[in-house]
Specification:
Protein name (chain A): C4-dicarboxylate ABC transporter permease
Domain DUF112 (chain A): 18-436
Largest sheet of chain B: 6 strands, mixed
Strand content of chain B: 15-25%
Distance between the termini of chain A: 53 Å
Strand order of the largest sheet of chain A: 1-2
CATH class of the largest domain in chain B: Alpha Beta
Number of helices of chain A: 24
Number of strands of chain A: 2
Keywords (chain A): Membrane, Transmembrane, Transmembrane helix
Oligomer: heterodimer
Pfam family, one (chain A): TctA
Shape of chain B: globular
Order of helices and strands of chain A: HHHHHHHHHHEEHHHHHHHHHHHHHH
Helix content of chain A: over 70%
Number of helices of chain B: 11
CATH superfamily of the largest domain in chain B: Bordetella uptake gene, domain 1
Shape of chain A: globular
Helix content of chain B: 40-55%
Structural class of chain B: alpha/beta
Structural class of chain A: mainly alpha
Transmembrane segments (chain A): 78-96, 108-133, 198-218, 325-346, 352-375, 387-405, 411-441, 462-484
């Protein structure tokens, strides 16, 4: 036990480790904030860079980058409407409207505090319940992942704005775009027209940068004559009363984040979107409607994606199974450093586990410090003249799209989707469902086929086994309930027959 | 201004001209990794390169260019000048591109700077599966054709090839469920989504040692020190000898028409990298067998691999085109 404690606080007490964690967290925030530069990329570069280091030093830097990077995506999402990573898409939905109202400082402050809160909850679950959670997480079968994806696609309802029909159209477009490329199951080429560049499919990140960032820049060309919005910077750190108010919601969304993060097939992006949807469903009377700057819409995804960090470490440290793309690379790093990441790691080297828990906690504290400093300077970015700001957004988008996979074709896609996004917005289509569709397309497609192949193509066996498995049956029931709860019939029933049915 | 630019361009052209003539390398080298960060290929390349960089006196800037079962990276390197400044850091996959209809390239278009190592496949199963050895598996599958679910990584991947070999030698009908890689498939097997799967030793070993899955046997002629209890497949099925040794491999390649002195320098550098004790320990810990071969020896290895594997996948009905079309000899 004393050993465990000494490892827990190891990175707090050794100045080198302390410094590396701080550097990692700070760098992570900026890497995360630049769209296209991802934590996955940064950590994989660090594998070569830290080749000759001690394993704890390398880990301290990587843990910091991971924590900081997941949070960093919210910066550009709030300030410029360009999510730094897919995990920050939901943050942009209500964060950017806040910035438009001149409350960017407040929004960043709140998202920082809530990210840290979510991060802590993730770490606590990791420390206290890791073996239980991971045993449960690996029970998820292809069929359950498919049901999860179906649940995710219902989010189109939350993201489609004024018209559900247009939202469904946009979501379907995203799912169609997600099918482009080499089919991983059969190596069959789908919609590639014989082009090698298309074999890898259309990058969801390129699509996201285009639809959000470039289309926003194009849109703003209409309002060049308007002065930039003055940002209020007096109230940055959210009041205790605010934190208290959002505490129940953030506990729920953190739980969603930890669990979705711990599932080996899903990560922070899906966690954040599901949390956003959850917030929208449980918040009966937001101060401002969702999509126009509701604080709940900011709190939910930000707690969830940082809670997913702790979640992702759960199967990694207990079973050697990565919880997401970043932990997959950290497993590689451990292996290069002579450790054998696997189910025996926890038994043979429990110090690794406690070191990681302690180090993530430390990174989370640094996140609070670095996150809350410098907000004033950041908010100045959107106060600069549009003649400077808009070319800057375009430059950032091009660099971001290129760095996804060092490919110029991603830049073309990004620009193309930028133009498409501009016209979509012009005609009242939301771009969120397109990104949702492309993210969930593979998850749903692959897992449905895995599930039905396992049943030897028998649809009746599929349904029978789905209802026979408690896990699948629960997920299925949840989907049915969510659907029914949105019908006018149910709303009438709930309101005792007096309420006017409202489109959801 | 324009004069200056022209000057710079001329200097650059001169630089490139000099580069191909001698003194290789006079600038940093690009290493294009065919698979994603954190995967086996990525890890092997990132561990062998530091020593090779020392010999070359320049950095190797490594980039992951994934997609199309590695065809995108392969195509990219093929489109670069044959000057040795762009290396293809890759695995076995290009040897099947032609029969899978993915690309017209294979390692015939590249020169093997170093084929570093090969992996050894094992058969592993869910702990609850009603078979404990390869023989029991085959008997069970024969008694219940199509009912056993095999974890796979898509056509042309290691599980599909081993499954193809089993199907060629025994009456072996299983339902293959494809996953995104051997890691996700092993995870799914622990959850019970599939019953057994062929996997590379290094990836499966830790899970076997921890008792989370069981090993049925090893697809090699000898047992491995990593999992000494895994019985070689040839013990029960000696007819498998003709395929062996077989396994996925990793190598560093340049375009075939790269100048000879450049090839020689690269061969020297990666030989030094492969001989480093750290690197060899890393491989053996992970159950990989060091090959460290280049030039003609590597070409012979690559040709044998291609002929064995292409015909197995073709006979198993996985390949789209016959190896005959491309002049790949029958083993």
């Amino acid at each position: 036990m004393i050993d465990a404690f000494s490892y827990l606080f190891m990175s707090w007490l050794q100045p080198e480790l302390l410094a590396l964690t701080a550097i990692g967290t700070c760098a992570g925030i900026y890497i995360g904030a630049i769209p296209g530069l991802s934590v996955t990329m940064a950590v994989s570069i660090l594998i070569s860079f830290t080749f000759g280091w001690q394993v704890n030093h390398a880990l301290a830097l990587m843990n910091g980058i991971f924590m900081g990077g997941v949070y960093g995506g919210s910066r550009t999402a709030i300030l410029l409407n360009i999510p730094g990573a897919p995990a920050a898409i939901a943050t942009a939905l209500d964060g950017y409207p806040l910035a438009k109202k001149g409350e960017a400082g407040n929004a960043i402050g709140l998202s920082t505090v809530m990210s840290v809160l979510g991060g802590f909850i993730g770490i606590i679950v990791l420390a206290l319940a890791a073996p239980t959670v991971s045993e449960f997480a690996i029970k998820f079968q292809p069929r359950d992942y498919m049901l999860l994806a179906v649940m995710g696609i219902l989010l189109v309802g939350s993201l489609s704005g004024e018209s559900l029909a247009k939202g469904i159209f946009a979501g379907a477009l995203g799912m169609l775009l997600g099918t482009v490329g080499l089919d991983p199951m059969t190596a069959e080429q789908r919609f590639t027209f014989g082009s090698v560049e298309l074999m890898n499919g259309i990058s969801p990140v390129a699509l996201m940068i285009g639809l959000f960032g470039v289309s926003e820049a194009l849109n703003q060309l209409h309002s060049l004559h308007l002065p930039a919005i003055r940002q209020r910077v007096d109230k940055i750190i959210p009041s205790l009363a605010d934190v208290k108010k959002y505490l129940p919601l953030s506990l729920q969304t953190s739980a969603i984040g930890v669990f979705i993060g711990a599932l080996p097939g899903t990560g922070g992006d899906i966690a954040a979107l599901m949390a956003y949807d959850h917030a929208k469903r449980v918040t009966k009377e937001p101060e401002v409607p969702f999509g126009e700057g509701a604080k709940e819409g900011l709190v939910a995804p930000e707690t969830a994606n940082n809670a997913a960090v702790g979640g992702a470490y759960i199967p990694m440290l207990t079973l050697g199974i990565p919880g997401d793309a970043v932990t997959a690379i950290i497993i590689g790093a451990l292996f290069i450093h002579g450790l054998n990441p696997g189910p025996l790691l926890l038994v043979q080297k429990p110090d690794m586990f406690w070191f990681t828990v302690g180090n993530l906690t430390l990174a989370n504290i640094f996140l609070l410090i670095f996150g809350l400093t410098g907000i004033r300077i950041f908010t100045r970015i959107i106060e600069c003249p549009k003649g400077v700001l808009l070319p800057l957004i375009l430059l950032l988008s091009v660099v971001g799209a290129y760095s996804i996979n060092n490919s110029v074709s991603d830049v073309w896609w990004m620009l193309g989707f930028g133009v498409l996004g501009y016209f979509m917005k012009f005609y009242g289509y939301q771009v969120g469902p397109v990104v949702l569709g492309i993210i969930l397309s593979r998850l749903m497609d692959d897992n449905w086929r895995r599930a039905i192949i396992s049943e030897r193509d028998s649809v009746s066996d599929f349904f029978f086994n789905m209802l026979a498995s408690p896990l699948s049956a629960t997920l299925f029931a949840a989907i049915v309930l969510i659907l029914i709860s949105q019908t006018p019939f149910w709303k009438k029933f709930r309101a005792g027959g007096s309420a006017v049915p409202k489109n959801g | 201004m324009i004069g200056k630019l022209m000057g710079a361009a001329a200097a650059l052209a001169l630089l490139v001209g000099v580069a191909s003539a001698g003194d290789f390398p006079d600038r940093d080298i690009q290493g294009i990794i065919q698979w994603g960060a954190g995967g086996s290929t990525d890890l092997v390349m990132r561990s062998v390169s530091p020593e090779a960089e020392k010999v070359l006196g320049r950095s190797i800037i490594m980039t992951n260019k994934t997609g199309g079962v590695g065809a995108i990276a392969t195509q990219f390197v093929a489109s670069q000048p044959a000057d040795g400044y762009t290396l293809l850091m890759s695995a076995e996959n290009p040897q099947l591109y032609k029969v899978m209809g993915l690309s017209n390239l294979d390692y015939g278009d590249f020169y093997p700077v170093n084929v570093l190592a090969r992996g050894v496949p094992v058969l592993v199963a869910n702990n609850d599966a009603p078979f404990n050895t390869i023989k029991e598996l085959v008997d069970y599958v024969q008694a219940n054709p199509g009912a056993v679910r095999m974890g796979s990584t898509g056509p042309g991947g290691l599980p599909s090839v081993v499954g193809g070999m089993l199907a060629a030698e025994t009456d072996f009908k299983v339902t293959a469920v494809p996953f995104d890689g051997d890691g996700p498939a092993l995870t799914a097997m622990q959850g019970g989504a599939v019953d057994f799967m062929p996997a590379v030793l290094g990836v499966a070993a830790e899970h076997v040692k921890a008792g989370r899955i069981k090993v049925l046997g090893i697809i090699d002629e000898e047992a491995s020190p990593i999992l000494p209890d895994a019985k070689p497949i040839t013990a029960d099925y000696p007819e498998f000898k003709k395929y062996l040794p077989w396994g996925p491999f990793f190598g560093v390649f340049v375009k075939r028409d790269t100048p000879d002195d450049v090839k020689a320098k690269l061969v020297e550098a990666f030989k030094a990298g492969a001989e480093k004790a750290d690197f060899q320990k890393l491989l053996s810990d992970r159950g990989y067998v060091l090959l460290n071969i280049s030039g003609d020896e590597a070409d012979a290895f690559l040709r044998k691999w291609q002929s064995t594997t292409a015909w197995v996948v073709y006979d198993a009905g996985i390949a789209k085109k016959s190896p005959e079309e491309f002049g790949i000899a029958k083993p």
